[in-house]
Amino acid sequence: MRLKPVRPAEVVRWTAILAAELNVGIHAFLTPMHLREMPYIGALFIVGNAAFTAGAIVLLGSRRRRFGWALIGATSALELAGFVASRTIGLPGGYKEDWALTSENVLGMVCVVAETVVLALAIVAARARRVGLTSQRPPRRPVLKPALLMLVAVPVLVTACAAGVSSKTNPMAGMYMAPGTSMADMSQSPAPSASARMVCAPETQKNVAQLLGLAAPPPSTTSWIDAVYTCTYHSSAGALVLSVKQSSDTAAARQYFDTARLAVGAAHPLSGLTGLGLPAYEAPNGAVIFLKDNMTLQVDASAMSAAADSPHPTPPDLAYTVATDVLACWNGD
Fold it and tell me: How far apart are CA 320 and CA 299, in angstroms?
């Protein structure tokens, strides 16, 4: 039995389809988590999966392959841009990831490779029609088409089912809620407020650098989960973590504050001028917590090592000074 030669056009087409579906499968797996943390990111994943799947289905057929190439190529370019932005300038709503070697980032890099392959092949196909990369001839083995259509449909079904189980069948499934957090907190805080974002604003970054004796602010990463905006500063001395919890009202904020201060071991109250007239506690390991209106501010310097050349060498002093600097910004001082 003599094997028929494989045309380069078919190799390019199938490589693009498989790379696109690899990307769809990974995004299908990550979608439920992003729907909980930042709903619009999860929604964009679903839209991207639908676009990739539609493009792959078109490429499986014998007509309108130019449209299929354009669709998966444009989707790849947009998703690549979104990945880079999420780890550099950040995305709307304070969404910003870091480059740490986590399972999510490893999957993200696999998607980057797949999207780069798809984009490159789409460009090749657009510029090389003369060698049949977008040939209108029907596939030589149409008997495989039903199985392949089922293959490209699976990731979309996985995405839809996972999202449905997460948000409809059991809205609380897999959802972490911090102590004192209510569903009202989450529904009424679609994005961090300007006050919450101050923990990672340029002025705070400058203050942190000065306190650590650095010429420039240390690298920082942010997250927005369960109405808690967190900014982590990474320095050679360790991690300095600032977080602000936005509660729906002052009663909910007080409940969260009381629970959170016990969780971090902040048992020593700060009173009078030291507490700035606010409910405040500190822990001996270098954590402080303040309550102002419906906002709970926590600064955790417990992972920081004391620096001899710093104006505030001990973690407790560092945490307290950073916290009071942020509160001064809240007061407009």
Answer: 8
The answer to whether 181 and 189 are in contact (CB under 8 A) is: no
Q: pLDDT tens string for the chain (333 positions)?
A: 454 555 777 888 889 999 998 999 999 888 887 776 678 888 999 999 999 999 888 888 767 788 889 999 999 999 999 999 988 888 887 667 767 666 777 888 999 999 999 999 999 888 766 444 444 454 454 434 554 554 545 555 544 554 444 443 333 333 333 333 343 343 445 678 888 888 988 889 998 888 888 888 888 888 888 889 999 998 888 889 999 999 888 888 898 888 887 777 756 788 666 677 888 888 888 889 999 988 999 999 888 775 544 455 588 888 888 998 898 888 654
Q: How far is CA 33 from the centre of its chain?
A: 10
DSSP letters spanning 276-327? TTS-EEEETTTEEEEEETTEEEEEE-TTPPP-TTSSS-SHHHHHHHHHHHHH
Contact 229, 196 (CB under 8 A): yes
Strand partners, 291: 296
Helical (H) or strand (E) element with 241: strand 238-246
Q: What is the dihedral of CA 17, 22, 28, 29, to 10 degrees?
A: 170
Burial label for 304, CB within 10 Å (0-12, 13-18, 19+), is buried
In angstroms, the CA 239 to CA 192 distance is 22
Rounded CA separation 196/269 (Å): 23
Report pTM.
Answer: 0.47
Alpha carbons within 13 A on the beta-carbon side of 104: 11
